[in-house]
Amino acid sequence: MEPLFSEKQLQDMSKENIITLIQAMQVHQKKQETEIQLLKEKTKELEFMNALLSDRLALAQRKQFGSSSEKYAEGYEQMDLFNEAEQEADPNAAEPEMEEIHPKSYKRKKPTGKKEEDLSAFETTEVIKHKLEGNDRFCPECGTKYKVVTTETVKYLKFIPARFEVVEETTYVYACPKCGMMKRPQKDPSLLKGSVATPSLVAGIMNAKYVNGMPLARQEREFARYNLNLSTKTMANWIILCAKRYLQPIYDLMREEFLRSRYIHCDETRLQVIDEPEQKGTTQNWMWVYLTDEYSGSPRMVLFQYERTRGGYHPVEFLGDEFRGYLTCDGYQAYHGLPEQITVTGCMAHARRRFDEALTPLKKGFTKEQLKETTAYQAMARIGMLYKIEELIRNQSPEERYAERQKQSKPLLEAFFGWLHTLEGSVNRSSKIGEAVLYALNQEKYLKAYLEDGHLSIDNSAAERAVKNFAIGRRNWLFSKSIKGAEASATVYSITETALLNGLKPYDYVAYILERMKDLGPFPSKEDLQQLLPWSESIPESCRTNRPGAST
């Protein structure tokens, strides 16, 4: 290879030109080292993917052509989980000596009074007293009567399974013997005309399905064990009717309050609706979720909205012309076409997740020290510093958070993206690290936006937590049968998840709403509805939980 400069050219160079040449060579060397490091990481990633695909191929071949035995390796068979005790038991085995028994891990001792605190929320319904009676009250040695010196009290907790009670309502009709005029006493309206449903029963069904993820078919089987024949279809009808008649007005009022907030989050998750017209049964529909978080400065709430597609026009329609402020979301392109009055901020958790995915294949082939030299590890470390700052300023005011972010987070974030830009020309776009770097650079504008206001969050994790209950329930009931069912689910999830965010017990709160709404009649006033909102101070104490963390 011919040299770039001859010996004579080098000798004739000025000092300034030599310095410039050395600097250019250093930059080139740094770039070459970066490219070599990235190639090493790409090689390890390909090795990992090759091993993963080989394992999947071997497993598929074993399933198709292999023996039906559950043997995974020579001398090892999968244990029957239902027969483990019988298989492993050895009647002739000697009991271990006491000194041979070692605890597996340290178990923290409960603080004094912890049991009393745990049981303090429950009513004591049974008191058992153990006293000496008759001749047992006298000392057998000297015949003197015993004297009580102290008492020992131990508390236990009983569980009473679901119990159904019938309420019989009889209305007497009166008539005047002289003129025949008749009079009937006024009675409270029923929840659903001609139905045995009550607020407590419907609230229990909603709580089981939407809070605890129990499908209606499973509830039907559970009710049957208690001699109650209540079909899935009947329960579904109750949910749809009560959601539309009683919960929807609360939802609409919550949305009005939501649109007045200046700081919101948005996300979307899949949902399959079977009876959507003109679509295949396997087509995916979408549940959109909108919420305010702990920094928003407005009431905490979650609003679910069922939509047929994932089109970007859905959030435009939902937010309308009323919302003006910041919307925090992931990198989905549809959010970037929102009106000018909406400022989109990004999700650092999504960027971090991509670097974590790039790091995973490298963990098998690199030592800990080598791992720390990888691009993915360095990116994770830099992002981790940003999150550490957020943790430290979490309980501060928005103004204080803004000041600290400008002082601490902004220089780190600028340095992080400056470093990513130096990698842009070197990374392989088809590699995991290439995807991570390019995703972060494409989202740079949105990932930096949280620095603008102390009310903003660094990521969209609040929205992801909000859809967690929905995702767990979806794994159990898999799909919605009808559009009305999907819309009712959106309404009920909005009510129950918002109740949790506001420290309420979902079952008690929904039962309270249904009871009050049926009494308010078909056209309740806005003032009456405001008293029923999850954050209203008028909600009774019986609906509130006093257990920290129980509502999240």
UniProtKB/TrEMBL annotation:
Q: Residue ranges of the Transposase IS66 central domain?
A: 195-487
Q: Residue limits of the Transposase IS66 C-terminal domain?
A: 494-535
Location of the Transposase IS66 zinc-finger binding domain: 137-180
Please report the stretch or stretches of sequence annotated as the Transposase TnpC homeodomain domain: 53-115
Question: Region Disordered: which residues?
Answer: 87-118
Q: Which InterPro entries match?
A: IS66_C (IPR039552), Transposase-related (IPR052344), Transposase_IS66_central (IPR004291), Transposase_TnpC_homeodom (IPR024463), Znf_dom_IS66 (IPR024474)
| NCBIfam families, per database record | transpos_IS66
Q: Which PANTHER family match?
A: BLL1576 PROTEIN (PTHR33678), PTHR33678:SF2
Protein name, UniProt field: IS66 family transposase
